[in-house]
């Protein structure tokens, strides 16, 4: 059974776990994988993946609060089978879909689209990679749906009121009505801004999260926190607003820079540190596979992280108490240290002692 919320960790990660430095962001060659007694280990640092056609995508539903901690290398988690994690919030409940090739599964997206108008919000980095595929998934076999898009500049510095207005400008120019759906395609910045825009446009419209970074997949896309930054404070303007669904295509991690992958792994480790000892032990056995972008290891880490966050959010949606535990590392991380512009790299240094000067 899953570790209870009160689980605690009494030992740090082994010193043998290291984030490789100096790697570039171009895809290296595929690595070979062997099954060792203690878990999945990558014999070289590369990227491997698997794919499945939409016809093979059988959904397996798991309960966020009761799913056992299982090692996918022992055959307990089937490969190529998308998983559904439920965020239980009564009439605001929604599913998180996790799997490979989900951007090419139009039924998953279309079942959560309300009305006939869709606005996809993305940025200059993600649009060339995935925008066309998302538009195709939204419209395939459904000629009644009209899709517009707005492409924002990429970066945390653009998470402000001026950039938010570009979303409203496009929505108004396109005559989006109260039955439209906003789709956030990108990392945490896009998800936060699109969600806040959806919460406030004509006093609230439906929206869907399609996170493309590991950080967004295990954290910011789940739980309904949306907003923008103010020059005097971070994330002080926003709303709690839940999506209709979160669609996590693990294949999008193949284009994620190494530094961003490391940041997301920091968030994964956090769930083990604060509440899930067995998951933390699994991370110790499988860290090399995660860094090598092994698809089955990443899918399991994302699933278990989402289960942990969904469990906390279902108990404390508005962060009146328990949910504050999810902020481990955030307070230090939001300080803009010169050597750690990506705040989860700073989290790594504080908690794990991993040097990262790349």
Automatic annotation (TrEMBL):
The record, for Gene3D superfamilies, names: 3.40.50.1970, Dehydroquinate synthase-like - alpha domain
Q: Which Pfam families match?
A: DHQ_synthase (PF01761), DHQS_C (PF24621)
Provide the 3-dehydroquinate synthase C-terminal domain boundaries.
264-335
Its needed co-factors are:
NAD(+)
Gene Ontology terms for molecular function: 3-dehydroquinate synthase activity; metal ion binding
Spell out the residue ranges making up region: Disordered.
1-30
SUPFAM superfamilies assigned to the protein according to its UniProt record, in alphabetical order: Dehydroquinate synthase-like (SSF56796)
Keywords linked to the UniProt accession: Amino-acid biosynthesis, Aromatic amino acid biosynthesis, Lyase, Metal-binding, NAD
In terms of domain of life, where is this protein from?
A: Eukaryota
UniProt lists compositionally biased (Low complexity) regions at: 1-19
> Looking at the keywords, is Amino-acid biosynthesis present?
yes
Enumerate the Gene Ontology biological process terms: amino acid biosynthetic process; aromatic amino acid family biosynthetic process
The family assignment reads: Belongs to the sugar phosphate cyclases superfamily. Dehydroquinate synthase family.
Protein's name in the database: 3-dehydroquinate synthase
């Amino acid at each position: 059974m899953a570790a209870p919320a009160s689980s605690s960790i009494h030992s740090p990660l082994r010193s043998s776990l290291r984030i490789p430095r100096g790697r570039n962001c171009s895809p290296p060659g595929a690595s070979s994988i062997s099954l060792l007694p203690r878990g999945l280990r990558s014999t070289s640092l590369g990227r491997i993946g698997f794919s499945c056609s939409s016809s093979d995508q059988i959904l397996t539903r798991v309960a966020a609060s009761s799913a056992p901690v299982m090692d996918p290398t022992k055959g307990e988690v089937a490969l190529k089978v998308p998983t559904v994690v439920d965020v239980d919030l009564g009439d605001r409940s929604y599913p998180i879909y996790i799997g490979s090739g989900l951007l090419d599964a139009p039924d998953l997206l279309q079942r959560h689209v309300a009305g006939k108008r869709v606005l996809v919000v993305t940025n200059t980095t993600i649009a060339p990679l995935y925008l066309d595929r998302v538009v195709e998934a939204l419209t395939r076999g459904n000629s009644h749906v009209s899709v517009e898009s707005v492409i924002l500049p990429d970066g945390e510095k653009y998470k402000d009121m001026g950039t938010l207005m570009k979303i409203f400008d496009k929505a108004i120019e396109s005559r989006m009505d109260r039955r439209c759906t906003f789709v956030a395609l990108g990392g945490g910045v896009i998800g936060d801004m699109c969600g806040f825009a959806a919460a406030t446009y004509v006093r609230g419209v439906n929206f869907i999260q399609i996170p493309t970074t590991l950080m967004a997949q295990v954290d910011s896309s789940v739980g309904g926190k949306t907003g923008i930054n103010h020059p005097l404070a971070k994330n002080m303007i926003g709303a709690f607003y839940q999506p209709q669904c979160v669609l996590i295509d693990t294949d999008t991690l193949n284009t994620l820079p190494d530094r961003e992958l490391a940041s997301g792994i920091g968030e994964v480790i956090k769930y083990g540190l604060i509440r899930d000892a067995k998951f933390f032990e699994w991370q110790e056995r499988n860290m090399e596979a995660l860094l090598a972008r092994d698809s089955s290891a990443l899918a399991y880490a994302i699933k278990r992280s989402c289960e942990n966050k969904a469990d906390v959010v279902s108990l404390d949606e508005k962060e009146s108490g328990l949910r504050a535990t999810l902020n481990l590392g955030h307070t230090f991380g939001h300080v803009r240290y010169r050597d750690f512009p990506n705040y989860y790299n700073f989290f790594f240094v504080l908690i794990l002692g991993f040097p990262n000067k790349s």
